[in-house]
Amino acid sequence: QAYLSYSNIAALTHLASKPGWDITKTLDNVRIWTHEEGAVLSFKVEMQVKVPSHVAFSLLSDFSLRQHWDRHFLTCKLLQAVSEEEKIYHVTSAPLTGHQPRDFVVLVSQRQPCRPQEPYTVAVRSVTLRMVPPSPEFCRSEILCAGFQIHSNSSSSCTVCYFNQVTSGVMPYLAANLTGSSKSIEDTALECIKFLE
Questions:
Q1: What is the set of domains in the chain, with CATH numbers?
Q2: Beta strands 102-111; 139-140: pairing state
């Protein structure tokens, strides 16, 4: 468990620090970036939020609150609190036209910054739990690496960056989006800002 949690945080930190991000969209307080490497597509959504970074961190690290702003989350159930900083959740997502509803078993690792210039981190990856085997009513999907980095801008504002390394399981939700025919990433980002503020 210690290794999984360390590699969860390390994978997100590594993804965030990669060079070669391309900006694809800019709105007032949301910017969307993509990064392609072989068959792996990653995206980053950067949001300017008018709340202190520690407030954004406490709201985003509690995954049971995610349904309040992310309409892709149908249900989110806490399965196991491994420690203060590590929790395992079972998430189900709404079916897309022509697709079976999906479910995920994820480890959410949260870290406060060790030094003032470091961000707060909430890292997410899929794990396997014997107590939640795949069920015929859902298509079990995998999150390789996703999560948030929250950088403090001032005592009352912060920059929230959401990252996701896209697998085929998440792809249907994003394909229409990144080609510009759907606004789901933007809409979700704006809902997230509204929820945090």
A1: 1-196 (3.30.530.20)
A2: parallel
